[in-house]
């Protein structure tokens, strides 16, 4: 029997993992002659209500964004696409075992081991969140332990494609996602952010230290209820040998309110650093601070430590001075724009971003910062950055566009509002829930006071929906419930009860009502 070949390139060898949504195979890359791991996913099993073609586009986009992250704590993505009815993701093949299997052999971990694993996960998450990407499904099964003790994170970006409503109950009563590791805001269907991954990290760390997740249960609904309403058992009650500082960190990570968790993976790493095993002091100048230098001793002093300055977009490379006798070549802005359009048409978004970002300074120097040419270029640049998932770089461009437009046409101008809406989306994607919430509320006041509110009804409903989800993310459950209940009433009046928006709102409200019912029954 001939082995299956995916995408006319990857020859399937042996099945190494299988779940309800797909399979993982070892395979051989026939073109480069190397062993790889191939994950096959079935869109019809992941989200029956989502069109397969839309799922494929989202899948490839998420894989492209994921490929931007270069970190030794992440599995390298080689390729992605679709083959027949399946999506495929080709990854680096890693020798080792997943963290769940490793924990089974060593449960509970020595606390030094647990701190070491968590620190390595923090390093990877810091790089991921800087893009920004939210993993959404961090758990021991998605972590590999290599024979040398290094830890790798798997399935980056895949969870966000599988289903945006990860707590949806299927017709069999099971939950899409991993209930044991879900943060409260994720359980309630609220906006997710880096704080969501930090909660999952707290669950993993608790499990490594105690041998059990903090909220076990016999049913998915029961587990999700405990995430929402029950405090975790402090790990020192189970193992008194654990340092108080480590217990306190776990409890902070498992805070119900995202605002009470650590500010980021970098902060968690710094809290873990004093608890990590050491091999003594290396007498080398520099590279000892949190930011560190590029000294070669840094990997030994701070192994895999995240770089705090990576949270912002790197500054553009300096342009070397041109000798005075060599005349400066005038850039061909029109040709660069045409090339960017061609690349966008081919789906080569990253290359288009580089061209647009490179031509903007030259265009501003030639035409002036406030010229129509520069504004059109900046708008295209910001839009393309958002399409490429580079929200951190898109945000200042959008703010600049919004400020310039507001100065000319006023804060209620439709284009000003559109720039503001895009900026709010960037804030939401970056996990800055409070800032996004304030921006959406400011925008809503303009849209609702418009002379013709009916023209922007869908936008008003969208913003109100996002505000409700962000209220869940910041822990204001009663405010979110009121916001979403009023939105459901208005959406049913506008669209009827069977429109997708009322259906989605009703499903979320019913799910949250289930949790309240479970609370009363306990």
TrEMBL record:
Molecular-function GO terms, alphabetical: kinase activity
InterPro entries (UniProt xref): Kinase-like_dom_sf, Prot_kinase_dom, Protein_kinase_ATP_BS, Ser/Thr_kinase_AS, TPR-like_helical_dom_sf
Keyword set includes Zinc: no
EC number(s) per entry: 2.7.11.1
Region (Disordered): 307-327
CDD domains: STKc_PknB_like
Binding-site residues, ATP: 39
Pfam families: Pkinase (PF00069)
Domain Protein kinase: 10-276
Superkingdom, natural source: Bacteria
Protein name: non-specific serine/threonine protein kinase
């Amino acid at each position: 029997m001939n082995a299956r070949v995916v995408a006319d390139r990857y020859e399937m060898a042996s099945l190494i993992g299988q779940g309800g949504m797909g399979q993982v195979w070892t395979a051989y890359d026939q073109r480069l002659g190397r062993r790889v791991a191939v994950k096959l996913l079935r869109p019809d099993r992941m989200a029956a209500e989502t069109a397969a073609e839309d799922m494929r586009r989202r899948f490839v986009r998420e894989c492209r964004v994921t490929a931007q992250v270069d970190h030794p704590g992440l599995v390298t993505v080689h390729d992605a696409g679709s083959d027949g009815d399946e999506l495929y993701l080709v990854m680096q093949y890693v020798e080792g075992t997943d963290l769940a299997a490793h924990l089974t052999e060593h449960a509970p971990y020595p606390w030094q081991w647990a701190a070491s694993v968590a620190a390595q996960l923090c390093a990877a998450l810091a790089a991921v969140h800087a893009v920004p990407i939210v993993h959404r499904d961090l758990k021991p099964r998605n972590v590999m332990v290599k024979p040398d003790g290094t830890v790798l994170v798997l399935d980056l970006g895949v969870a966000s494609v599988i289903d945006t409503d990860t707590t949806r109950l299927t017709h069999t009563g099971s939950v899409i996602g991993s209930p044991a590791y879900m943060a409260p805001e994720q359980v309630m269907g609220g906006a997710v952010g880096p704080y969501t991954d930090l909660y999952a990290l707290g669950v993993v760390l608790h499990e490594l230290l105690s041998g059990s997740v903090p909220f076990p249960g016999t049913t998915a609904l029961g587990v999700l209820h405990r995430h929402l309403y029950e405090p975790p058992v402090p790990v020192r009650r189970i193992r008194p040998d654990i340092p108080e500082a480590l217990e306190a960190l776990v409890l902070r990570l498992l805070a119900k309110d995202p605002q009470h968790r650590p500010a980021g993976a970098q902060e968690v790493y710094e809290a873990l650093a004093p608890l990590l095993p050491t091999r003594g002091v290396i007498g080398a100048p520099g590279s000892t601070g949190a930011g560190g230098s590029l000294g070669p001793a840094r990997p030994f002093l701070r192994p895999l430590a995240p770089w705090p300055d990576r949270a912002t977009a790197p500054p553009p490379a300096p342009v070397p001075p041109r000798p005075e006798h060599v005349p400066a070549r005038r850039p061909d802005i029109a040709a660069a724009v045409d090339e960017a359009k061609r690349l966008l048409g081919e789906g080569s978004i990253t290359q288009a971003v580089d061209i647009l970002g490179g031509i903007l300074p030259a265009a501003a120097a030639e035409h002036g910062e406030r010229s129509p040419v520069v504004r059109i270029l900046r708008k295209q640049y910001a839009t393309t950055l958002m399409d490429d998932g580079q929200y951190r770089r898109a945000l200042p461009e959008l703010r600049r566009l919004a400020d310039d437009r507001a100065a000319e046409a006023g804060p209620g101008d439709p284009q000003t509002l559109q720039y503001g809406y895009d900026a709010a989306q960037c804030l939401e994607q970056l996990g800055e829930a409070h800032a996004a919430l304030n921006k959406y509320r400011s925008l809503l006041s303009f849209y609702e006071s418009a002379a013709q509110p009916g023209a922007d009804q869908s936008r008003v409903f969208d913003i109100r929906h996002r505000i409700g989800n962000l209220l869940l993310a910041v822990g204001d459950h009663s405010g979110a419930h009121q916001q979403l209940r009023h939105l459901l009433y208005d959406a049913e009046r506008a669209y009827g009860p069977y429109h997708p928006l009322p259906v989605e709102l009703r499903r979320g409200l019913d799910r949250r009502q289930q949790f309240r019912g479970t609370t009363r029954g306990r």
